[in-house]
Amino acid sequence: MKPGLCLGIALLAAVLTPAAYASDDDSFTIQAGTSLEVELTSTLNSKTNQTGDLFTGKVTEPIIAHGEEIVPESSTVEGHVTFMKPPGRVKGKAEMRLVLDAIKTPEGRRYLIGAGLQDAKTPEGETVKSEGTVEGPGKDTKHAAIESGIGAAAGAGVGAIAAGGEGALYGAAIGAVVGVVHTLAKRHPNVELPPGTDLTFLIPRAVTATKSGDAGAMVVPNAN
């Protein structure tokens, strides 16, 4: 077979490969690179949580193969915090790294996935960096400018009372400095992910589970 034809067939097969499939032996496989949409059901906070803490969630978009839900929308997920860094003052935003460990379906299938966080829709504007790390939003620069302005105005007023116009200038400068120092003394905000936060995880490798006859049983998959 010509090299060009082989390459074309390989590319076509890659395009047509489903996110998940059910085989004739009643086993179910989720393909590598599949995205998993999850709604957090736990509370995660860089102030109260630490490395190793567990979290839970629920699947919000099913994974479907050949007309069957391999991972139904009602499935639950389990994960843990692999890294936690509290916020600093001048530098150092809070960071929290999350990994999703397993999916459990209502039918009793259990997939061990080790999925990394790809995206998070958070209420405070946290962002997701590389390796599934959520970074805190940082200090509010607008609020810092307001604090400096208030300090300058207050200082000018005191200076004017004490020493007239020249005192007002000195007082304004001192007040502005005090406002800046007060802002710098504050730490960056903590990372806070409340229940209901939408998270997107990426499954890094293909995983397979076999349907259990007992809906209450859990079946540990084999990694392909």
Q: Class by helix and strand content?
A: alpha+beta
**Which of globular, elongated, flat, extended, rod-shaped describes the shape?**
elongated
CATH architectural label of the largest domain: Beta Barrel
Oligomer state equals single chain
Main sheet, how many strands, which sense, barrel? 6 strands, antiparallel, barrel
What is the CATH H-level superfamily of the largest domain?
Type IV secretion system, VirB10/TraB/TrbI
- Spatial separation of the terminal alpha carbons: 29 Å
User: Using only CA atoms, what is the Rg?
Assistant: 26 Å
Which strand-content bin applies to the residues? 25-35%
Number of domains: 2
**Mean pLDDT metric:** 74
Extract low-pLDDT stretches.
Answer: 9-16, 140-148, 150-160, 175-185, 213-224
Element layout with pairings:
Blueprint: H1 3-16, E1 20-22, E2 27-30, E3 35-40, E4 44-45, E5 54-59, E6 63-65, E7 68-71, E8 76-85, E9 95-104, E10 110-121, E11 127-128, E12 133-135, H2 141-185, E13 192-193, E14 198-202, E15 207-210, E16 222-223
Antiparallel strand pairs: 1-2, 2-15, 3-5, 3-14, 4-13, 5-8, 6-7, 8-9, 9-10, 9-12, 10-14, 11-12, 15-16
